[in-house]
Give the backbone structure.
Amino acid sequence: MASCLLPARADTVQRKLEAKWIADLTVASAGGTSIEVSALPHVMSEDFWRFTVLAVVKDFATMLRLNNPWYFYSLAIDDRVRPTYAAVDGRVLGVDTPHQGVLLIGDTMTRSLITLFRERSNGAAIAGSLAHELAHFYQFKNGPEANSTWWLSLLRDDGNITRRKAELHADFLAGWCLGQWSEKFMDYVGIDIVAKRLYSFGTMDDLDPNSHGTPEQRYAVTLRGYFLGKNETADAVQAAEQGRLFVNAIVPMRAEQ
Ligand SMILES: [Zn+2]
């Protein structure tokens, strides 16, 4: 394997994860998947991890009510082989802290998300991508009905063929978080950078199981979520409901295609 050829960092620790679902990592992930990651003490630098990444994660976790009790465990990883941000519905083994999800934050992905704007580096896309992963935890934890999660309901909304509606719903909720957060960080430049960076990850293949929606759909849901958060609602439950309506309005139902 290529990964064996890369020199391991001195501070890398192999960690094993057991997962029910994994969002945003292209692996078979239904039912008891096990993956290994190379955990790092931090991404970028210790200060960046503590004062930027974890601070941002805490703000969004509070908005999405994932903080009391803390729902997930954050893990910095060496992702040189495959740049990764992912939300795992599962546990990292060998960790004492109780948790039901694992947030994987890759060092390479973090560096690649820094966007140059007017010759200055802008971290908006890092914040937007973290919000997207936390939105997946919201989908894993909550649901529109008592017996189903948002994640499963949105997979069903697309006939269980692709994940695109769950992904677009996560973009919508990420936009909503950024809108709620706007006094702190977001101006119109920031949301445009986020929407364009997510847009660049969109795909046109509507049968790919890992489809995240088309670039245009990602751009639209991110902006719609942003303005809902900024101007209209501070309630995550309402945002999740509005998000599903909007996603189902712009992505055709399978039977109608
Ligand atoms: Zn996702």
